[in-house]
Structures are given as C-alpha cells and as structure tokens.
Design brief:
Blueprint (H helix, E strand, L loop, with lengths): L1 H16 L6 E8 L2 E4 L13 E9 L4 E8 L15
Antiparallel strand pairs: 1-2, 1-3, 3-4
C-alpha cells in the first residue's frame, strides 16, 4: 500500500519540479474524498485497500498539481497441490 502512496508523491513532485519550482510546500492527501494527512507529509501511512487516494501538492511558486489512484487489491490465488487418493 505504501508503494502506491510513494508513487503518487513522486509523480506529483516531478510535475511541479519540472516547471522550475524548488520545493513542495504543501501536500494534502485524501482517501475517498476525506483528508487523512495535510501536514506536508511526503510518505503518509493509511489502510488503502479498495479506496481512491488523491494527493494535491503546492510548490513554492504557488502552482498546484494533483494525482489520484484507484487502489484495488485482491487476495492472491492460493497455492495447491493435487494428491492422488491411491
């Protein structure tokens, strides 16, 4: 789950820095539309299975960028072994 959050943060950061800013000064993380971190945290933790995660970040020049992911995790297919009844 944290991999998704780091990926979102990297994508938003690349977008802002490519336009000449030097720092991200504000990050607002939302889970299903509700804010769960707004203290400029670049790596928050949250249970995110089956949710939409969105990050809106603002740089030191005042520009904003936003990215969201629909996180759908599923249980892996169980391993099994066929055993002969004989």
């Amino acid at each position: 789950a944290d991999t998704y959050l780091m990926s979102i943060n990297q994508e938003v950061g690349k977008s802002l820095k490519s336009e000449g800013s030097t720092a991200i000064v504000k990050r607002v993380w939302k889970k299903n539309g509700a804010i769960f971190s707004s203290v400029n945290n670049s790596n928050p933790s949250s249970q995110i299975q089956g949710t939409i995660i969105e990050l809106t970040a603002e740089d030191n020049v005042g520009r904003q960028a936003s990215q969201s992911y629909d996180v759908r995790t599923q249980l892996p297919v169980p391993e099994w072994q066929e055993i002969s009844p004989f």
